Amino acid sequence: MARSHRLFELMQALRRHRRTVSGASLAQELGVSLRTIRRDVATLQGMGADIDGEPGLGYILKPGFLLPPLSFTEEEVQALMIGAQWVSRQTDDKFAFAVKNALAKISAVLPVEMRPTLEDETFYISKPLSVATTIDLSEIRRALRDQCKLSITLSIEHAPKDPQVIWPIMLGFIESRRHLAAWCEGDSRYRVIDMDDIAQAQVLTERYTRNRRQLIKEWRALEILPCNVRGETC
Known about the structure:
By secondary structure, the protein is α+β, with helices and mostly antiparallel strands. The chain has 8 helices and 7 strands; from the N terminus they run H-H-H-E-E-H-H-H-H-E-E-E-E-E-H. The chain has 3 domains: 59 residues, Arc Repressor Mutant, subunit A, CATH 1.10.10; 45 residues; 85 residues, SH3 type barrels, CATH 2.30.30. It comes from Pseudomonas amygdali pv. mori. InterPro entries: CBASS_pafABC_assoc_protein, HTH_11, WH-like_DNA-bd_sf, WH_DNA-bd_sf.
């Protein structure tokens, strides 16, 4: 394995481990000696990588350091293309534009011989069969990112007609449907709402105070189905 590729693989391994990992574990994972790991860690530290730790204690990579991409395998490029197609056809226009920009950046750093793989139409991802919602998904994503509350009005018969305030925590794409998991302030419980059932949605300036990751953890434990599947009131 070339040294530059080995350094890149070590960086990737350190990124995968969010807690301190021993040099022996890294050596086993990468198929090199412990001595090589120690030498390569020192090299990366000399290049500016913020790696905490020392021999015998383990290592952890702090956020913020990026090596320029060195190479992609053919399968990695194909995986990127499949993911890019899915995002551009299943989400919203702003994400589709972001995907186009990202692919252009990837193409710029790919070796010339790998670029045909990026442009090869080997796989096809279809658009959703039907999407009735007129809600701007980029606004929903903004609410998720900034932990902003949403005021929504539902169109299903059994739902209240007045606007409801929810804390959006996750946007899901399940087959051809889009669902929003949220904590509802009105009755203090989690719900999974079909996006097609939302007639109006407004991002509020007020933010919810609890951490979204903790809310997701609680919601996952409850295994809640979309509310209109069981005829519940949303």
